[in-house]
Design brief:
With about 290 residues, the chain is of the alpha/beta class. It is about 30% helix and about 25% strand. The strands form three sheets. Strands 5-4-3-2-1-14 form a six-stranded mixed β-sheet. It has a six-stranded mixed β-sheet with strand order 6-7-8-9-12-13. The protein starts with 11 loop residues before the first strand and ends with a helix.
């Protein structure tokens, strides 16, 4: 008897990069808009839907006690109410969704917040990434995270970063060494630094031989305006989808099989010489100890 042919599992899926303009500290409005955009992206067949950094709250303003209080009141535990809402949408649409928000932590010393990217899927909450590198005024609002996690999902192995994190090559390298096939950076990247945004992406993806998804917001606070420009970069460093400065959803295809194929051609992770890199790490740590 002939055995029934079994089709190989598809490694290709549609991805939606949501270039939205969050309303500052208007959580209810932002949630409604996110649910609407999830529905729109799902109708187009997207399996992975990604929102910008702090999509639930908008970006932080110049520091003041009032602004800090407003952000703390808008922050939530993870999982929490917003996570549950987006989980429900993910279950209904059979999609994986990544979004940025302010996470409320616990501390006997006072209010604690983290700038986080959250991942949910058709089976519920998967995990979150706490932003590790905090630029400028963010240090006055958030505590830094200290770990890069890789989540094994139905779409592939995904690592999360938040905005400034991807400027540091070590973050994506850690993700790659932990097995990531896709790194997703949710950002509030400012319009005065567009060249860096576009320059870092291809090198980041190519040097780690993985897919890089960069999602950036539009508009927002006057002193830190977003410009869109969301993009998908393949494991060879080629930009396969790119957004403009319009409020829209940018669509592109990701094929995780290309990661394996490219790593067979250029096995950069195997060809590393970590015994030589230890010296630079030791130098940096010794310097910090002496100058703290």
């Amino acid at each position: 008897m002939l055995k029934e042919a079994v089709s190989p599992k598809s490694t290709t899926f549609k991805t939606a990069l949501v270039q939205m303009e969050p309303s500052h500290l208007n959580v209810d409005k932002n949630r409604r808009e996110m649910v609407r955009l999830i529905d729109e992206a799902a109708r187009e067949g997207a399996r992975l839907i990604v929102f910008p950094e702090l999509a639930v709250t908008g970006y932080v303003g110049p520091y003041s006690p009032q602004e800090f209080q407003g952000f703390y009141e808008a922050s939530e535990p993870v999982p929490g109410p917003t996570t549950k809402l987006i989980e429900m949408a993910a279950r209904q649409k059979g999609a994986f969704i990544i979004f940025g928000m302010a996470e409320r932590g616990e501390s006997p010393l006072g209010p604690v917040m983290h700038n986080v990217s959250v991942l949910v899927g058709p089976d519920g909450y998967i995990g979150r990434h706490r932003k590790i590198h905090l630029p400028g005024g963010e240090k006055l609002y958030f505590r830094p995270g200290d770990e890069v996690e890789v989540y094994d999902t139905g779409l592939g192995k995904i690592a999360l970063l938040v905005c400034y994190d991807f400027w540091f090559p070590e973050t994506s390298r850690i993700a790659a060494l932990k097995g990531a096939e896709i790194v997703v950076d949710s950002a509030n990247w400012p319009a005065f630094d567009t060249d860096v945004w576009y320059a870092l992406g291809p090198g980041n993806a190519a040097s780690n031989v993985l897919w890089l998804v960069q999602v950036n917001r539009l508009g927002g606070e006057d002193y830190w305006p977003g410009f869109g420009g969301s993009q998908i970069v393949d494991p060879s460093g080629k930009v396969t989808a790119r957004g403009t400065d319009e409020q829209t959803i940018v669509y592109g295809e990701i094929d995780t099989a290309l990661v394996v194929a490219r790593r067979m051609v250029t096995p950069v992770l195997f060809d590393r010489r970590p015994e030589l890199y230890e010296a630079s790490t030791k130098f940096a740590l010794d310097y910090l100890k002496k100058n703290q």
